[in-house]
Amino acid sequence: MYVVRACDGHARSGYHASVANGDPDLNLLVALRALLEEANVTHAGERIGLGQSTMSSALSRLRTVFQDELLVRVGRDYELTPLARQILPQVQLTLPLLSQALGQDELFDPATTRRRFSVQISDYAAVELRPLFSMASAIAPGIRFDFLRLPPEPVGADRHLLSHDFIVLTPGIGIQAEGFEVLRDEYVVIADRDNPRVAGGEISASDFMASPLVRCDFGRAHMMPIERRMHELDMHPQIRVTTSTLLSVPLIVAGTDLIGVVPRRLAERNAEVAGIVAVPTPFPPVELILRLWWHAAHTHDAAHAWFRDLAAEAVATGIIPG
Which of 3, 24, 155, 318 is 20 to 30 A (C-alpha) from 236? Predict the structure, then answer.
């Protein structure tokens, strides 16, 4: 018996029967997904319409099936075990396909969902896409976003995209997946407002090369477009400071002789508070394009599709400035 949503007494009694017998069944997969995504027995039960005692019984049975704790208590919260983190994307892949095959697609209601979206994203992109996340939270007040750092190692697209709902990243680093553009910006050079090398509202190539640079390094998986362009031009600036966050670059530059190369929007947001100025790069403009990527396995996930549609609408209507 396969029940995606247990909203009435019949569905609940069917689930009780499936938990009570000794063999793994599809209902148990529904409970497994909710438990692993929520990492909370009570919230998981609320999500699929079951009481805490029933969910606790389901967790106990799942622990027996997998011979693993799956959820372990850390302080007042639960965390997923390594095995649980490994099987979650497989469960997320399997359930929507089974729902579709059986003609029992899971209903998604933004007003009541408690879905948690896992997004690998840079600090800069998280700030710039804030209107999208705010709009989503206003429509679906129960959703949660887990913003995770971009993977530092070369991206194994299938593994990372299966493990997370989305990655927000530039094209050109080997990702072959579903996606669309959500943000476009261009790079500028920033410096302290009193730095004489930018006194005329620009910086020459020779002054750029002679200035100590703050470099943002997300890891060897991520050669950003500006780095590719400088590599193509055989330009190798003097890197004095390396940081892993774009948002920190203006504050590091402030009050020093350092320069940085960051997206224009980031420079404009921080110009006043950090006391910096932004000038064009001493070479042809370099665009920064960010795409929202996802694995094809998530295509039929109703909540996933809802957020993708919302993101596309935000781009089309200018809620996310283009």
Answer: 155
pLDDT digits (tens, 9 = 90+) for 64-87: 999 999 999 888 778 889 998 888
Give the domain range for residue 38: 9-101
Distance CA 286, CA 227 (A): 10
Same domain, 132 and 51: no
> What residue has token string 């709902």?
165
Spatial contact of 193 and 232, defined as CB atoms under 8 Å apart: no
For the stretch 179-207, pLDDT in tens is 999 999 999 999 999 999 999 999 999 99
8 Å CB contact between 262 and 123: no
Contact 207/237 with Cβ under 8 angstroms? no
Identity of the residue numbered 78: Y
Long-range contacts of range 13-19, CB-CB < 8 Å, 24 or more positions apart? Answer: 15/50, 15/54, 16/54, 19/54, 19/57, 19/58, 19/61
> Which are the contacts of 112, defined by CB distance < 8 A and separation ≥ 6?
142
Amino acid, single-letter form, for residue 233: L
297 φ/ψ angles, rounded to the nearest 5 degrees: -65, -25
* pLDDT score, position 291: 94
| CATH at 70 | 1.10.10.10
What 3-state class would DSSP assign to 265? Answer: helix
Q: Please identify, among 70, 101, 132, the residue that sits at the C-terminal boundary of a domain.
A: 101
DSSP reduced 3-state for 196: helix
